[in-house]
Amino acid sequence: MAKKFAKAFYKSRSWRLCRESYIKERVAADGGLCEQCRERLGYYVHHTVLITPENINDPGVTLNHDLLEYVCKPCHDREEGHFLDRGDRGKARYSFDESGNPVPIRNS
Rounded CA gap, 61 and 64, in Å? Predict the structure, then answer.
């Protein structure tokens, strides 16, 4: 889920068009494979530069195809901060096995 400061951006027409054109570009290039593992189809258009309140309005960062990648859900969830517990602890609730399947982390 998008951070509060980014929700309007991710609902914007400019982002939807950029995302759509990037997916079409990746499908034409390699059928839409995940750009990280190259084993599964892409699912998310991921910003390779962390989007912050300072750069959210910079189209050179947010709408730049050179700073995007099309990734599958397991690869996206491995990215820092994308699969964290939303509670105060901020610790990951899952890790991934060698096949990319989520495995619950047991915190003691």
Answer: 6
Euclidean distance between CA atoms 89 and 91, whole angstroms: 5
- Tokens standing for 69? 């990648």
**What's the whole-model pTM score?**
0.72
94/99 Cα distance (integer angstroms): 14
By the 8 A CB rule, do 83 and 91 touch? no
Report how far residue 37's alpha carbon sits from residue 76's, in angstroms, rounded to the nearest whole number: 10
pLDDT digits (tens, 9 = 90+) for 63-81: 999 999 999 999 998 876 6
Alpha-carbon distance of 102 to 5, in angstroms, equals 28
Task: Kindly list the distances between the CA atom of residue 88 and the CA atoms of 79, 84, 85, 92, in Å, as whole numbers in the listed order.
Answer: 19, 10, 8, 12
Among 22, 101, 3, which Cα is nearest to 63's? Answer: 22
Tokens 């390779």 sit on residue: 48
